[in-house]
Automatic annotation (TrEMBL), chains A, D:
Species for this entry: Daejeonella rubra
Database matches in Pfam families: ThiS
Protein name, UniProt field: Molybdopterin synthase sulfur carrier subunit
TrEMBL record, chains B, C:
Biological process, per Gene Ontology: Mo-molybdopterin cofactor biosynthetic process
Domain of life assignment: Bacteria
Name of the protein this chain belongs to: Molybdopterin synthase catalytic subunit
Keywords: Molybdenum cofactor biosynthesis
Involved pathway(s): Cofactor biosynthesis; molybdopterin biosynthesis
Subunit and partners: Heterotetramer of 2 MoaD subunits and 2 MoaE subunits. Also stable as homodimer. The enzyme changes between these two forms during catalysis.
Keyword Magnesium applies: no
InterPro entries per UniProt: MoaE_sf, Mopterin_biosynth_MoaE
Keyword Nucleotide-binding: no
GO molecular-function terms, A-Z: molybdopterin synthase activity
Length: 77, 160, 160, 77
C-alpha cells in the first residue's frame, strides 16, 4: 500500500519538496506523526488534509493506494 | 430560454455544465474579457451580466512592495470543487450561463487574475450568483498566491 | 490610495467626481468595456472590479418580439441625478473609481445598453457599490426605453 | 412669466409634441388642469412632475420663467 503525499504552498517551503511517497501508513493520524517527525516545522503550521481530492476531518483509515494532499489556507482570487 | 431552477440542463444544453478548465497561464487580458462579453450577443434571452475581476494589488508590506503574485493550485481538486460550486449556483439561481477563469503562474500588479461572469434574464440573479461564486471560490478552491516583492523576497498571500 | 469615506476628494483628484456625461449614442461595444478595464491597470491600489452590463432582451410580448430598444432621456436632469447618486455612493463605500455609461437611441437585442463599473481595494465595496448604483439609476434616472418589435410596432418598456 | 413644458416618453405619444410654452400659469395644479383639458388622455396616465430638473410633490407655485418636465415611469438600464 502506497501513499502519495502532495504538498502545496508554504508547506512545500517547509518540506523542500512538493511530493513524497510513503509506505505502510495505516491512517492519517499516523501519516501526520510521520510527517511531523520528518519536518518538525509542519506541526506548527495550519493546514487541511485532502484524501483523493476530498477534504477530510479527523483521523481516517487509509486502504489501498491513496492520494493525500496537504493544503495550507487558500488564497486564490 | 432560462434554465429551470433545480434542473441540471440549461438553455445551451449539458455542455455548459460539464467540468471546464478554469485555469490559464498568466494574467487574464482585457481583450479576453471583451471576447467573452461579445460571445453573449447571440443569447438574446439575457438581460443582465455581472462580472467580477480580481486585480493584483501593489500592497506595501513589511517585506516590501508587492510586484506580482505567483499562483499555484491543486488543479484536479480545484476543478472538481468548481464544478460542485457551479452545480449549486445553477440550482439556486436562474442563470443563463457562468464562466470562471483564474490565473496560474505570475501575474503583475495591476493585471487581472480572476474573472467571474454570470448572466441571466434579470439583473438580480446575475449579481447575486456572481457574488456568491466569488465568495465560494475564494473560500473553497485549493489555490495559493505567493506575493513576490520588488526586492525579490516573497511571502504567502492571506485571503480576508 | 483609497478615498476616505465622507470626503469629497478621491485618489485621482477632484476630476473623478465632477459631473461626467454618462450618455453615448447607440450600443456600448465590448471593445469599449475592454479599454475601460485596461485603463485601470496603472491603478495598483485596486484589488477588485465589479461590472454590471444591461443587455437588450428579445422578449416575446403580446405585440410581437422585441427587436431593439430606443432610449431617450431628460439628459440634463439625468446627469444631475447621476452626480448625486455618485456622491452618495462615494460617501458610503471606499471606492477607487466609478464609471457609468448608458446608451441613447436604438440598441439591438443582444447589444449592451448599460455599463456600470466600480473598483476598490477589496471586493466587497466594489460589488455592493455596483449593485446599489444599478438599483438607484434604474429607479431615479429620467430615461425611457421604447421597445421596437420585429413587426415595427412599439411599446414602452416597464422596469421591474 | 413663461412656462416651458417638456414632455417625455409615452406622454409625448399622447400630446403629439415634446415641448410646449404656456403663459400666466400660477401653479402646477393649474398647469395640470390646463394640460388635461388640452390632452384628456394625460389625466389617465401616471407621471411625475419636475420643476427646474427637481421632482416636486403636490401643488407648487410657479414664479418667474420655469422649466417643467412631465416624466412617465422611468425605464432606463
Amino acid at each position: 500500500m502506497q501513499v502519495q503525499v502532495m504538498i502545496f504552498g508554504q508547506l512545500a517551503d517547509i518540506t523542500g519538496t512538493s511530493e513524497l511517497i510513503l509506505h505502510d501508513i495505516p491512517d492519517t493520524d499516523t501519516l501526520q506523526e510521520t510527517l511531523h517527525k520528518l519536518y518538525p516545522a509542519l506541526a506548527n503550521t495550519k493546514y487541511a488534509i485532502a484524501m483523493n481530492k476530498k477534504t477530510i476531518q479527523g483521523n481516517t483509515i487509509l486502504t489501498g493506494d491513496t492520494n493525500i494532499a496537504l493544503l495550507p489556507p487558500f488564497s486564490g482570487g | 430560454m432560462e434554465s429551470p431552477v433545480g434542473k441540471k440542463i440549461n438553455s445551451s444544453g449539458m455542455s455548459e455544465r460539464k467540468p471546464k478548465n478554469i485555469f490559464q497561464q498568466g494574467a487574464i487580458p482585457a481583450t479576453f474579457i471583451a471576447e467573452s462579453i461579445q460571445k453573449h450577443s447571440s443569447q438574446t434571452a439575457i438581460g443582465g451580466h455581472s462580472i467580477f475581476l480580481g486585480q493584483v494589488r501593489a500592497d506595501e508590506t513589511e517585506n516590501g512592495k508587492v510586484k506580482s503574485i505567483d499562483f499555484t493550485a491543486f488543479e484536479d481538486m480545484a476543478q472538481e470543487k468548481m464544478h460542485l460550486i457551479r452545480e449549486d449556483i445553477f440550482a439556486k439561481y436562474p442563470l443563463t450561463c457562468m464562466h470562471v477563469h483564474h490565473s496560474l503562474g505570475e501575474v503583475q500588479a495591476g493585471e487581472i487574475c480572476l474573472f467571474v461572469f454570470t448572466s441571466s434574464a434579470h439583473r438580480k440573479a446575475a449579481m447575486d450568483a456572481c457574488e456568491e461564486t466569488v465568495e465560494r471560490l475564494k473560500a473553497e478552491l485549493p489555490v495559493w498566491g505567493r506575493e513576490i516583492m520588488e526586492n525579490e523576497s516573497h511571502q504567502w498571500k492571506v485571503n480576508k
